[in-house]
Amino acid sequence: MRKWSSEAEKIMKERFGKDTVIALATVEHEMPYVRKVNAYYEDGSFYIITYALSDKIKQIENNPNVAIAGDWFTAHGKGNNLGYFGKEENRIIAEKLKIVFAEWIDNGHNNFDDENT
């Protein structure tokens, strides 16, 4: 990951260090797919919660090149599936995401007993 200035990092935290809707683009068979996702930015990465069997995860596993766009911001990078939300290795980020996404995380859309979440 390319590093940027402390001022740029401060702006990123201010703009995206909370529940933010961004566009996430993936590729399948040389065709781009774009959808809006709720995301949280921290230390150079954007985090989303999605179902492991979703098209977006399948596309990322086949081709990790992704692009994102938010208000006045675009970027590209590599997507990475961190696996089950409830894994011990994900505990710290999962606790943060529960707080950041508190408004909707328990609305019935997510099943945290399912290891594909």
UniProtKB/TrEMBL annotation:
Pfam family name, one: PNPOx_N
Superkingdom of the source species: Bacteria
Matches recorded under InterPro entries: Pyridox_Oxase_N, Split_barrel_FMN-bd
Signal peptide: none
Domain Pyridoxamine 5'-phosphate oxidase N-terminal: 12-79
Protein name, UniProt field: Pyridoxamine 5'-phosphate oxidase family protein
